[in-house]
Amino acid sequence: MKKITLVLGCLILLNSSCSKKQNNAIPNYIEEPHSFSQPNDAAITHLDLDINVDFDNEIIQGKASYLIKNNEASQIILDTKFITIDKVQADGKDTTFTLGDFDTQLGSPLKIDINQNTKRITVFYKTTHKTEALQWLKPRQTTDKIHPFLFTQGQAILTRTWIPIQDSPQIRITYNAKVQVPSQLMAVMSAENPKTKTPDGLYTFKMAQPISPYLIALAVGDIEYKAVSNRTGIYAEKSMVDKAHYEFSDMENMVASAEALYGTYAWEQFDVIVLPPSFPFGGMENPRLTFATPTVIAGDKSLTSLIAHELAHSWSGNLVTNASWDDFWLNEGFTVYFEMRIMEALYGKDRANMLARIGRQDLEEEIEGFKDTPDDTKLKLNLKGRNPDDGMNSIAYDKGYLFLRTLEETVGREKFDTFLKSYFQKHAFSTIHTEKFVAFLNDNLLEKHGITFNTDEWIYTAGIPDNQSIILSDKFETVEKTVQQFVKTNTVDKTLTKDWTTQEWVHFVRNFPDDIKTEHLAMIDDAFNLTNSNNSYIAMVWYEQAINYDYHGNNIDTKIEDFLIKVGRRWYVSTIYKAFKRNDKVETALAIYKKARSNYHSVTANTIDDMLGYKQD
């Protein structure tokens, strides 16, 4: 019966290639504006990477070999940017290829000639000094200042700058890698990793679960490993290992709490590597190996919500991935929601609500910044012709979270948790776009329980709907009263702040009254020495306020400059440079930036270049 049905189907379809559709299980990919690839014609499925990391010349050289699903195509297209292509093979034989016109955002399409039977392509290539994903650090730019360091950052569309690839989040591939590095260094990837150095600097890796290209990551440095549990641990430079191990000692508890909420952790190992301070993000959720900034090492575990956030990405982002960067909120909104649930489970509702209130304040500021471009405050974006980094802001994170929190409060936590667990299970190791999520939400939660909710208003319209969840925090109300008391009485009572968390201090600094005087700031600084805070988050918001209110006490100008030169975390440095710009101090900002820029990853430098109108000589 099956054979007869197939023959009849082919006769009915006539000119369409029935055998082509039956024999090649290529997914139905959506049109994706940030990739040249045409995966409905031919798609990569597995990568074998064989590369040498050359610190002397600061290049990576080698070959990327792909298994492909071929829909009887005559060519396959990969994304490249700032890569030199030496030669290309199809099934082991040299084949012709062309590089298309260069686009400043997207790079160039690498068009490789194949035939309908081609199963493997291999690209021999090397990176260049313009490669944006790579940051090569001299020993002086590392923590221990003995050996050089390299790390990659692929999100959103930078993997194409160090590996020729179909660089779209809807592509999912497995990979193996062979990486040669100097013998005194260790290489680690978003894959199964070594725990000790090899004698010859040769490392092999395997990622058995299919991941999106932006999650392929590599770090090379003089690092060590220290286990937290049998499935969690820390990589860091020698002087940082013990500090990081203490700071992140709750990692196993976080994994267990996450599993209790939404199902088994699907990646076997959850490790964190603490990178040098130039890393541009707080963290990056590379599967099995989160990349993290050292700015979260505060000595009191007060900033570890970042680890909970990156862990949550193991479900929302890595397991179920946004199909395009227009749908980025599906990664980050879900992850912030999950992060808050982990923090609530481990540290209580007060801690989670303080974090959520700070996020709500960030969202208000972001919306104000988009008052001239309100479409940018929609969850579902249209980023065609724009850098996808334009959508990586508080809208995706905090409006996405607020939508899900409001939804949870509307339907009830029990129903919502059942829905989310089902969502992760049914879409595991796949990609999803907003419209598919809305359909799943309607079918499996709202219509199923007869619940009415303004989903379209939340996702497709600007601003925040009126039915938003109201996030309360008694602790923050106390903080606000303390600010007023200090200003009103011109005195500081340290007993009122002795048990404050980082979140309370941040709220304190961010909520100074508009009419606060510099003498009040001096009084507060004398009492709490905020200018010299070892907590980078508190320091960042304090420096911002010092610029806003023209405070120059306690040698703070030098401290701000030192902070901006040392720290490359984009959120922190952009906040401070933005304060300079907002207060008509661009010349001061540029003078510092010229000293700091060489220490920044391209992700951070590009943002500050645009903000300050900086052009290299």
UniProtKB/TrEMBL annotation:
SUPFAM superfamilies: ARM repeat, Leukotriene A4 hydrolase N-terminal domain, Metalloproteases ('zincins'), catalytic domain. Its cofactor is Zn(2+). It is found in: Cytoplasm. Keywords: Cytoplasm, Hydrolase, Metal-binding, Metalloprotease, Protease, Signal, Zinc. Coiled coil: none annotated. InterPro entries: Aminopeptidase_N-like_N, Aminopeptidase_N-like_N_sf, ARM-type_fold, LTA4H_cat, M1_LTA-4_hydro/amino_C_sf, M1_LTA4H, Peptidase_M1, Peptidase_M1_C. Pfam families: Leuk-A4-hydro_C, Peptidase_M1, Peptidase_M1_N. It comes from the Bacteria. Residues 1-21 form the signal peptide. Gene3D superfamilies: 3.30.2010.30, Neutral Protease Domain 2, Peptidase M1, leukotriene A4 hydrolase/aminopeptidase C-terminal domain, tricorn interacting facor f3 domain. Its main location: cytoplasm. The keyword Hydrolase applies. It catalyses: Release of an N-terminal amino acid, Xaa-|-Yaa- from a peptide, amide or arylamide. Xaa is preferably Ala, but may be most amino acids including Pro (slow action). When a terminal hydrophobic residue is followed by a prolyl residue, the two may be released as an intact Xaa-Pro dipeptide. It is an enzyme of class 3 (hydrolase). Its EC number is 3.4.11.2. Residues 473-612 form the Peptidase M1 leukotriene A4 hydrolase/aminopeptidase C-terminal domain. Belongs to the peptidase M1 family. This is Aminopeptidase N.
